[in-house]
Write a structure and sequence with these properties.
heterodimer, A: mainly alpha, Sodium/glucose cotransporter, 2 domains, B: mainly alpha, 61% helix
Amino acid sequence: MSSLPLELLAPLEFVAQLAPPYNQLHTPAPGIGAMVALVLFIAASVWLGTVAQKVVERSAFIQGYFQGNRGLGAWTIALTATVQSGGTFMGFPSLVYTSGWIVALWIASYMIVPITGFGLIGKRIAQISRRTGAVTMPDLFRARFASPTAGLVTSLLIILFMSIMMIAQFKAGAVVMKIAWPGSGQLAISESQAQVDWIYLIGLAVFSLTVVGYTLIGGFLAAVWTDLLQSIMMIVGVTILVCLAIPAAGGLENASRRAISNVEQLARNQGATPAAAAQAGIQYASGPGLRGDGVTPYLPLAMAFSFFCFWPFAGTASPASVVRIMACKDTGVLRRSIFLLAVYNMGIYLPLIAICICAKALMPNLGGKSDEVIPRMALALTSEFPLGSGGWVSGIILAAPFGAIMATVSSYLLVIASGLVRDVYQRFIHPHATDHEMRRLTYVVMAAIGIIAAAMNIFPVKHLQMLVVFSSGCAASSFLIPTVMMCYWRRATATGTIAAMLAGAAASLTLNLIGLFQAFAKTGQFANFTPYYLLQFEPIVWGLLVSLVVGIGVSLITRPPDEATVSKLFDAPQAKPDQVG
Amino acid sequence: MPAEDPVLRSSRREAIVVFSIWAVACAYTVGYCYTFGYYREPGSLKFVAGLPDWVFWGILVPWTTCSLLSFWVSNYLIADDDLGEAQSEEAPHV
């Protein structure tokens, strides 16, 4: 069993004298803890899938399989309907570790996500969904505007964006299995780990079979319950880790001071003048902060504003979130979800920031492995737990992001499958398909998607990450304004809504493409590009603005919607509300 | 002219309040952090409860306030409305 090195408890002056990486906290090897935790998580997911299957079998297939019979409670809605993902445990901590306290401002809008996520459109979405019998997001648009075209365009955009994002997650899942393999020596996802070898292929096969398997068996409820399980694992892991990290660093203030000192020392080691080193140090604890290159400002004012728009609004109208809100039991569930999520977000993000600042104090030079900051802290800080229990604790912490990836794939898989089966096949090809036919087709489609996604990752698509950036940006810009128009504006037309969707996506895509070509002109390659930040704003800000202007403009110049259709959803029910739709 | 749907009316009122809360939180948090947290001189940093002063006042305080506000939003602002009976799945028509 390894022990914590003495310099962990050394005074600041002593640490500052040491040239990193010599003052690193020693990270023991992960052992079998991660693999055991992962296997347990997989087993739990499959079990949840079988339980969910029994619930689905009690109802009509489409309602039960794709929406859980509108029976979700507050805990499941609160902890699964927003944007926790593998990135919460890997990408985000890496940002804090690298750029310091300014990342707290970057993520600060999560303070408002619980309120906007459910309070802005939640109740209205749930109501329209019930009145129209809508099961999917395209169903909502189709019913609200009495326009099959609106439904089809929504469906095709969702399938396009989410397929790209999902395929990339399969690769992440395979790499995760490879990392968890005892003796891998790696603790986080990296390109070097994505090399195709037999462990990668086994990982890909196990990951694909597991995720497709339990999602196929249990449908929407299996995806939601698995998501809930990983959310609980995350908060347990973070709570344990923050309680260990802060005392180990001698308190949060001491951790900050040591981190600043370490950044200064690193800058001096790289040849910076004392003044420049001091400036680099203070940037670690103030704005605008510095990116990994040590030169580029991390968060200029316009970007800070952009991210205060990005997190609350990107999550609010994402197809995976909307379908979960549609599945809530009643308005009481939505109300309680707001407070539960507020408590959860505070318990996740602020402690994660504290842990990473402590990590910068204790292990200041992870170099290109800053993604490993959380697993390394977990292993180092639990290594002296009695009776080998540290291995189990770090196993939970290591398995949490793995669970998040599985949960993300599962929910994307369902949205894509429902898009193909419900919104394309049943709407346009075979409107009178029986329950049995729909069930059989859903299974075939889901298995086919899994096989295609797995096959594409045997020989991973080049520049897939680039497509993921494009897709996530376009998706975030596409759906918010049309969804708000659908909920609250009588005069909104089908053409205006479709135009808003396409214009938002196009604006975001254009800014990403400009960034891509700029990167190619400068470096001769497409990798590691950043979007073009027009006036320093994130593309989503421009995407939403363009979507809003186009949506309103096109709606106003097109023929007003049919009053009878609008009245069903905007006026008080007259006699028999169950005839609406 | 038929009466407006009561759920629509309450949802819209709540959405306006929610958007206003977002706008205030955004203006305060981004404004405070930019004013007091950007371009600090080395040696000027102070700490409150272990956090850099601008993080405490610009992020922790509004975050805590928003969390408390979420209690008010969930218990007092958002009304419990009848969402109506869920329609059974219709045979879809193109």
